[in-house]
Structure formats: C-alpha cells, structure tokens
Amino acid sequence: MRSLLALSLVTAAVSGCSTHQCDASTSNVDDSKQHVNPVNGTYVWDSAEFHGWITYNGNETITFTLPSNFPSTSTEGFTLSAYTATSTDPSCDVVGQFVEAAGQLAEFQIAGPQSFTVLNDTCSQYCLRMVATVTVPTAPVDAGPDAPHD
User: Fold this and answer.
1) What's the angle, vertex CA 80, arms to CA 77 and CA 83, rounded to 5?
2) On the CB side of 142, how many CA atoms lie within 13 Å of its CA?
C-alpha cells in the first residue's frame, strides 16, 4: 500500500512538470502616455478600472512603465497594490469578487524610476489590476506676519 501511494505521488509530480503550464514568461505594460491628475498632492495610477484587467499567467513577470508625470518610484510614500480575480471572460472583465494579492500572487520589484515588476509565483492564471499611489509633500505656505499662529 505504501509503495502504491509513493508511486502515485511521484507520478503526479512528474506529470505536473512535463505539461509546461507553468513555464516562466515576461510581458510589458507601457502606460507612460496615460494621464495622471494629482489631487491635493496625491497621485494615483491604476492599470485598469473594472473592465479589461490584465491576464496574469502563472509564473509570469509583468513590467509596468508609469506615466512620466507620475512621481518616481523612489519617492517617499510610494506604494503598490495588486488585486487579483478569476474570470471566465477571456478579456478579464471582472464581475464579482476580487482580493488584494499578497505573497506568491504578487511579488514586487522596483525596476527603475518609472517602472516596477510584479511576479505571479504560482502556476494559476488570474486577472490583475495594479494601483500605484504616492503623496508628494508640499511646502507649508507662510500666512504672513498678521497670522496669530505661524
């Protein structure tokens, strides 16, 4: 009985490696022409609203290029958030539930002053939405000598 169990585990492991369903791949998303409007010093960029999320294959690294008017990825307070969902729609129109990705679903790396990568370190396909946010501090405005507290 034990040898049958061991044989079935080895067979499962071998067949999973030979399907190529999880070969490494890379792709690029260039949103450098996308317009970003800062509101009160806060910049928000996202890769998609709720239609047309990005297909996020297993073991895929995606490089995103941010618009030139977005602050550098080295700006203090720069944050990245990834959201994943499953969808039966091939264009990844997400309807229903999605979650903020963590762990192996979204491994980030800063690739340059206007770019970053995210790796799906699983063997499953998802739909992906990325959001980058940064608040640029502004210098305080001097109210002048007549202000009671400066």
Assistant:
1) 150
2) 3
Element (H, E) at 81: strand 79-85
Helices (H) then strands (E): counts for the chain:
1, 9
Residue 13 lies in a domain: no
Give the count of alpha carbons within 13 A of 11, CB side only: 6
Closest CA to 45 of 132, 128, 110: 132
Burial class (CB in 10 A: 0-12, 13-18, 19+), 26: exposed
The answer to whether position 107 is within a domain reads yes
Number of domains in the chain: 1
For residue 113, the SS3 value is coil
Q: Which domain holds residue 58?
A: 21-135
Local confidence pLDDT in tens for the 150 residues of the chain = 555 444 444 444 444 445 666 888 888 888 766 778 788 889 999 888 767 789 999 999 999 999 988 999 999 999 999 999 988 777 888 766 889 999 999 999 999 999 999 999 999 999 999 999 999 877 666 666 665 655
**The overall pTM is greater than 0.85:** no
